[in-house]
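Bumping my old thread because nobody answered last time. Still need a sequence for this structure:
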């Protein structure tokens, strides 16, 4: 037998294993576009998401059941399908006929074993149809899925975007989809490039994108701003991490609604879905600082804006 030079394989960088879930359902186009974008960026991904639209179901969790008479969303599986299923053409696209939390856990505990021979390195949820800001994070299935991953010991990011409505996976791509997917991949890559551990224990990152419109029309028009989930209570709330010349972070809602630019908010929450202390904020800030911007000077009053 002749040995070919091709037997000497190049030492490939180890791909990062990622579980992707959401609350809009496994057949919604955003999650597919995020998968495609992360795959192009070199991630080794799989989708484990609800069979149906489970928007607004927070951290609900139930044993999956056989699919009912309406079938999966967007006719993506027939009535009477099993509680767990996958795409015929792409076994990495999996549904769980239950909640975001349930599907995220199945992705981490079960599908990861099959596809990655172990737990994933990181998990992401989204990007959601509609923002998940402030108090809405408490009922968001997207945030619920990310927090479940964190509870399973897997660092996680929740992504949500202002523009769009629920759309089937096979509909034509619209600009907002590719822009939000690119921005999500950017944050994910920035975090993973920072090295392990990607995040401190028991924290998740909540990322929200403002609208895609005539003003904010390409990936490069967006900037990332470090923020808080909830407004600080004067006197009572301890200082945030010091950045952009202040010990008080802007509230994520005010960042996303700020029309002086196209600002995406990046907040850090714990498994109770509330803001973490300055020390934990600092640890995440350090990892993401390469992509973070400050709000324009005259916009800093936005910090004081109430919920
Ligand atoms: C998905 O569910 C949410 C919450 O129940 C609802 O507001 C939304 O209209 C649903 N979307 C579709 C396309 O049915
Ligand atoms: C998923 O994995 C867990 C942990 O190994 C196991 O207990 C559970 O039965 C598995 N679930 C399914 C549906 O296979
Ligand atoms: C990621 O986002 C930052 C900040 O907006 C930008 O400077 C950088 O070019 C982006 N990187 C990629 C790969 O898109």
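Sorry it took so long. Here it is:
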């Amino acid at each position: 037998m002749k040995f070919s030079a091709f037997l000497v394989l190049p030492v490939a960088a180890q791909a990062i294993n990622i579980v992707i879930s959401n609350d809009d359902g496994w057949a919604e186009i955003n999650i597919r576009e995020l998968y495609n974008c992360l795959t192009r960026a070199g991630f080794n991904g799989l989708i484990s998401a609800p069979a149906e639209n489970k928007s607004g179901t927070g951290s609900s969790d139930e044993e999956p059941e056989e699919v009912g008479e309406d079938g999966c969303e967007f006719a993506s599986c027939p009535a009477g399908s099993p509680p767990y299923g996958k795409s015929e053409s792409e076994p990495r696209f999996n549904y769980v006929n239950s909640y975001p939390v349930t599907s995220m856990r199945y992705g981490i505990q079960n599908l990861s074993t099959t596809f990655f021979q172990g737990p994933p390195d990181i998990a992401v949820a989204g990007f959601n149809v509609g923002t998940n800001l402030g108090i809405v994070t408490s009922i968001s299935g997207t945030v619920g899925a990310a927090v479940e991953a964190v509870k399973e010991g897997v660092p996680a990011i929740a992504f949500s975007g202002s523009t769009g409505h629920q759309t089937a996976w096979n509909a034509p791509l619209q600009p907002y989809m590719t822009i939000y997917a690119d921005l999500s991949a950017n944050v994910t890559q920035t975090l993973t490039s920072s090295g392990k551990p990607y995040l401190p224990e028991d924290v998740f990152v909540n990322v929200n994108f403002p609208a895609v419109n005539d003003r904010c029309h390409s990936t490069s028009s967006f900037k990332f701003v470090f923020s808080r989930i909830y407004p600080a209570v004067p006197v009572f709330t301890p200082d945030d991490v010091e950045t952009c010349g202040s010990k008080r972070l802007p509230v994520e809602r005010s960042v996303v609604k700020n029309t002086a630019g196209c600002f995406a908010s990046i907040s850090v929450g714990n498994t109770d879905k509330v803001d973490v202390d300055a020390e934990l904020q600092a640890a995440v800030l350090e990892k993401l600082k390469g992509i973070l911007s400050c709000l324009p000077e005259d916009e800093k009053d936005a910090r004081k804006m109430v919920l």
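The chain has one domain: 17-208+268-292. Let me know if any region looks off to you.
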